[in-house]
Amino acid sequence: MVRTGSAKKKDEAFANGRLLIARGYLKDARNSNAVADPGDIGNPSMSTVINCAIAYADALTAKFRGEINQDDHQAVTKLLKAALGKQFPSKQESNLRALLEQKDEVQYGSRAKTRRDAERALERLEEFAEWAEKQYTL
Fold first, then answer.
1. What pLDDT is stored for residue 12 in this prediction?
2. How far apart are CA 52 and CA 125, in angstroms?
3. What is the model's pTM?
């Protein structure tokens, strides 16, 4: 059995709600990047991207395992792997992990990320979100 960290039981209604929220974050992340000026920092957009990835992961783990990660965002990938097994491709695990690894620095750190950093984060999210949407409908 894979250690998945602290988890909290959730039902299908929660999963559906998190999917709706993930879609909202995705739209907001796209809009944020689209209207950014060249000199703007990337942290606000990247924060939305990261929250979106977490919401998609929560939706999937709630739907397929009946629980979500709690407190330790680095353990999200472990819980998703436990929920989906081989249906969680290494490419998507890598996308999710790369986004989550930036969470503390982006949201709580003092270093400004660039617009290019935000664009790269959105590219990863787009791939992850497309995959997550397909998984959710299975």
1. 87
2. 8
3. 0.91
With tokens 């998507």, the residue in question is: 92
Torsion angle, CA of 104/108/113/116, rounded to 10 degrees?
Answer: 50
Convert the pLDDT of each residue in 106-126 to its tens digit: 999 999 999 999 999 999 999
Report the amino acid identity of residue 130: E
Structure tokens at 78: 């472990």
Tens digits of per-residue pLDDT, 66-95? Answer: 999 887 877 899 999 999 999 999 999 999
Per-residue confidence (pLDDT) for residue 3, from 0 to 100: 45
Residue whose pair of structure tokens reads 């629980």 in the numeric block: 67
Alpha-carbon span 118 to 34, nearest angstrom: 11
d(CA 46, CA 67): 26
DSSP secondary structure code for residue 75 in this structure: G
Count of alpha carbons within 13 angstroms of residue 60, beta-carbon side: 30
What is the distance between the alpha carbons of residues 110 and 104, in angstroms, rounded to a whole number? 10
Contact partners, residue 58, CB within 8 Å, separation at least 6? 10, 15, 18, 22, 68, 69
